[in-house]
Amino acid sequence: MPESLLTRAHADDLPILLELVEEFYVLDRHVFDRDRVAAALGPLLASQEFGVVYLVERDQGYIVLTWGYSLESCGREALVDEIYLRKRGQGLGARVMRAVFDHMLRQGVVKMFLETERHNSQARQFYSRQGFIEDDSIWMSRELAE
């Protein structure tokens, strides 16, 4: 993976990551809770057991990938949990996705997933250009916290 483009984030990168995540959450209309986001990033920054976080050009964005495994996919999956880039419309996103695809393939990932917000048709257009297709599946979720 081109080091100048993507570098794996570690615990000492938490301040810049929190800044970037907050920018993304404002843009994508999510509630930003600094303490909860920091806690959620902790395991991803400590090891690659659950996934990995890459910084884009050190401070121009980030991408979070988490791991799954599926019989339907016949192996290891990766979920693009979040991606945010400060620079848009300059080809950076396409370069990031190509680098991620190459790296995930070398890591044995057979299929990648992502989700977008209903209101974000621009993101869906970008992902379509990167080869993602809309599935018939409907994601459902349930909080397990008491």
Helix percentage: 25-40%
What is the element string, with H for helices and E for strands? EHHEEEHEH
Query: What is the count of DSSP helices, taking H or I runs of 4+ residues?
Result: 4
Mean pLDDT: 93
Radius of gyration (CA) equals 15 Å
Overall tally of structural domains: 1
Low-confidence stretches: none
Q: Cα distance, first to last residue? A: 41 Å
Give the overall shape: globular
CATH topology: Aminopeptidase
CATH architecture: 3-Layer(aba) Sandwich
Q: Order of strands across the widest beta sheet?
A: 1-2-3-4-5
**Main pleated-sheet profile:** 5 strands, mixed
Give the C-level CATH assignment. Answer: Alpha Beta
How much of the residues is beta strand, in percent? Answer: 15-25%
CATH level-4 homologous superfamily:
Gcn5-related N-acetyltransferase (GNAT)
Structural class: alpha+beta
Question: What is the number of strand segments?
Answer: 5
